Amino acid sequence: MDVAVFILVVHAFVALSGALVRLVRLPLPVLQIAIGAALAWPAKGLHVEIDPELFLLVFIPPLLFGDAFAAPKRELIELRGPILDLAVGLVFFTIVGFGYALHWLVPSIPLVVAFALAAVLSPTDAVAVSSIVDRNVVPARLMHILEGESLLNDASGLVMFRFAVAAALTGSFSLAAASLTFLYAVAAGILAGIAALFIAAKALQILGRIGGAPAEAQVLVMILLPFVAYLIAEHVGASGILAAVTAGLLTGTSSIFRYLAVSARIQAMSLWSTLTFVFNGALFILLGLQLPDIIRRVPPELTSRHWLFEPALTVLLLTLCLIGLRFLWIWIGDMAAVIAARLGKRKAEPFGFRVRLAGSVAGVRGAITLAGILSLPFALQDGSPFPARDVVIFLAAGVIVCSLLIASLALPRIARGLVEPGEDPGAAEERRARVGAANAAIARIESLASEGGEGEAAEAWLAVADSIVAGYRRRIAASDEADEARAEAREAGRLELELRHAGLEAERAAVRAMFRSREINDHTMRALFSEITLTEALLKSRQGRK
């Protein structure tokens, strides 16, 4: 019962945070962490012990799968060079640079443990990045690089974290063995994601052949897909995170959706949107719930004279160190790309100083870091306590919060003016695609209408075709490049939407009246309301695109 009440309370505050975010003017993740900390701060407040493996299994696969599914695949492929440079090269650079800096700043932390903390801090959090970074203020190219990096660097960071912990436990480290294991974790993780996608497609095929299978069963297969990918990879000792990301990246480009009924597709998209919001919110609230206990147990190594000032200063310096290392690596990679472009006689597209700084500040840490650091063992193989365990847990939690705060406060100011005003290239591309699709539809409809036969049958075909084609022509006019033509089409579209909304309200009122007068039962009323709601959603979607 206590667990059930705890889950309900967390979900209630996730919903509340969605309403409060417009009032407090804070990024949603920061607000949710603050809510979690407030719930756990009193002595009798909410408290929960996180099992790191269960935490990773429940939250990370669906969230990373959703982010990978929504990521622009074309741009990720085009930017694969800088993405891999950050997802792999920057991870190793951070481990070395941050590890030595931490050992110098806090000498009580052994160097191998400092490398472990650096490894678990090296991955940026895909969930936090997408929640913090505003696509309207950050250049699209940088945003795509950040998304791709955060999807891929978890695997490299966590694999190296496990090696560092193993080295601390055994006192030995083999570079050759670590390299082979890293390559195996990556390759097997990718194959596990592909295998899970194949299993899901076969399951949907079987459900389709059975006939009469409910759409909910098909939706459940899609919901289970990231968990299956994660578990397969973890079972064979590979990267479950990379498996979930692979499944998400390939789902949109595979043929799996053709096995889904139309109703199942609609339900899956709607349910996935809700699950993403709930899991995101619960994730950051759980992070906040851990903070009070971590702060209360501030390690004495960090509080020689001042209980709060020295730990806070240490966390700030370490966070700035991470940002500095990231800026240096981005600058080196940018210069290397410019030199390579000039040698290849291609046009160079270097980032400016502010774009590099924005990319450095946007590398926030989150759930992966906390789950990884909490998985540290309590004791070494000889039974002695794991060295500096409380210290590195405190520092990791502090860096998570500090990186989120710095990104939330500084990024809008750094990025202001980086995106030039004008039509978004993505919106222009979507407009061109709509025009092309509408022209193809008009050509096909007119071709069918001309083959409709003779006499009354031909007249009926032409009348229906004219009605449908008129709608497509309005869509083309609304996408016209001429401002005047687009303004007229938009005004006509606005009037049409207004009338359609009025008609839907009248429909809804009539259905309620028939239900009250007992002309229809509640089952019929719900069916009609569902149809009205779906039509209303489609109209709102059209209105939003305009």
Beta content comes to under 5%
Average pLDDT level: 81
Cα radius of gyration in angstroms: 27 Å
What summary fits the major beta sheet?
none
| DSSP summary, beta strand count | 0
Percent helix: over 70%
Structural class: mainly alpha
* Total number of helices: 20
Overall form: globular
* Cα distance spanning the termini: 48 Å
Domain Cation/H+ exchanger transmembrane: 14-415
Keywords: Antiport, Cell inner membrane, Cell membrane, Ion transport, Membrane, Sodium, Sodium transport, Transmembrane, Transmembrane helix, Transport
Protein name: Na+/H+ antiporter
Family: Belongs to the monovalent cation:proton antiporter 1 (CPA1) transporter (TC 2.A.36) family.
Characterization of the model:
The protein is mainly α. The chain has 20 helices and no strands. It has helices spanning 2-24, 28-40, 52-70, 73-78, 80-105, 111-121, 126-132, 140-170, 175-210, 215-235, 240-251, 262-296, 309-343, 353-361, 367-374, 389-415, 425-450, 456-478, 483-516, 522-545. The protein is globular and about 95 Å long. The protein starts with a helix and ends with a helix. 35% of the residues are buried. Residues 14-415 form the Cation/H+ exchanger transmembrane domain. Pfam families: Na_H_Exchanger.
At a glance:
This is Na+/H+ antiporter. This protein is mainly alpha-helical.
Key terms for this structure?
546 residues; cell inner membrane; 0% strand; 78% helix; sodium; 20 helices; sodium transport
Write the layout of secondary structure elements.
Elements: H1 2-24, H2 28-40, H3 52-70, H4 73-78, H5 80-105, H6 111-121, H7 126-132, H8 140-170, H9 175-210, H10 215-235, H11 240-251, H12 262-296, H13 309-343, H14 353-361, H15 367-374, H16 389-415, H17 425-450, H18 456-478, H19 483-516, H20 522-545
Helix pairs in contact: 1-2, 1-12, 2-12, 3-10, 3-11, 3-12, 3-15, 5-6, 5-8, 5-13, 6-8, 6-16, 8-9, 8-11, 9-10, 9-11, 10-11, 10-12, 13-14, 13-16, 14-16, 15-16, 17-18, 18-19, 19-20
Main location: membrane
Membrane topology: Multi-pass membrane protein
Subcellular location: Cell inner membrane; Cell membrane
